[in-house]
Amino acid sequence: MQATALYAPLDIAGRTALVTGASSGFGAAIARRLAELGCRLVLVARRLERLEALRDELVEKYRAPVHVARLDVRDLGAVAALPAALPREFAEVVKGMVARNRGHIVNISSVAGQEAYATGGLYCASKHALNAFTTATRHELVGKDIRVTTISPGSCRTEFSVVRFRGDEAAADAVYAGMDPLLADDIADNVAYAVTRPPRVQIADILVYASYQSSARTVARPKLAAAAAAAGGSGAGGGGAGGGGAVAAAK
């Protein structure tokens, strides 16, 4: 983040960041933003070929030191084995954070972790659990120079939008019809903001909605309304004339 005469953000160039789920969506966008800020990156996900393509992109564009590894975070044994499998210059990020007394943990949650809604029981429960886990971690680390942040996006269009509808792009498109949803780059910008605050500042929670959204299920769709009004206007013109005739007849 750019320093100004009034405020100097934290320079994180040269620091090492571990990004999970980095093969697409939020993870890939966060990786790009952190590379732009000069970070060294450890990128993990299940799709190694995508990670390798992203690594090549970041090395070429930002000359960022990047290590990639296939990892399914549901495999606790593989997660525990990750530090030992990393090259020495990258291993520092995933072990010894407390002993080093420096670090920042950022978890990407959801508006579904802030409220609950019909048909979203399991998803809402998982995000509420993530929020509770993150808050507990912040309590456990109080007094350490380790910050803990939750970022909760509202309506956001990523590859997951199609995945959750099992590849049905039309169904995914319908969710965002008539509005401008958030993009993964917007969430990456929130991450960049949180991790570049001065050490005295801990951003605990960021809840970010799309501009025409006020809750998980409350979304205005002005483009649809405008299109309907335009279509109705054409019909209303004819109807209006007919109505005028009816009024004239009534007179």
From TrEMBL:
It comes from the Eukaryota. Pfam families: adh_short (PF00106). InterPro entries: NAD(P)-bd_dom_sf, Sc_DH/Rdtase_CS, SDR_fam. Transmembrane segments: none annotated. The keyword Oxidoreductase applies. One of its GO terms (molecular function) is oxidoreductase activity. Keywords: Oxidoreductase. The keyword Oxidoreductase applies. Belongs to the short-chain dehydrogenases/reductases (SDR) family. This is Short-chain dehydrogenase reductase.
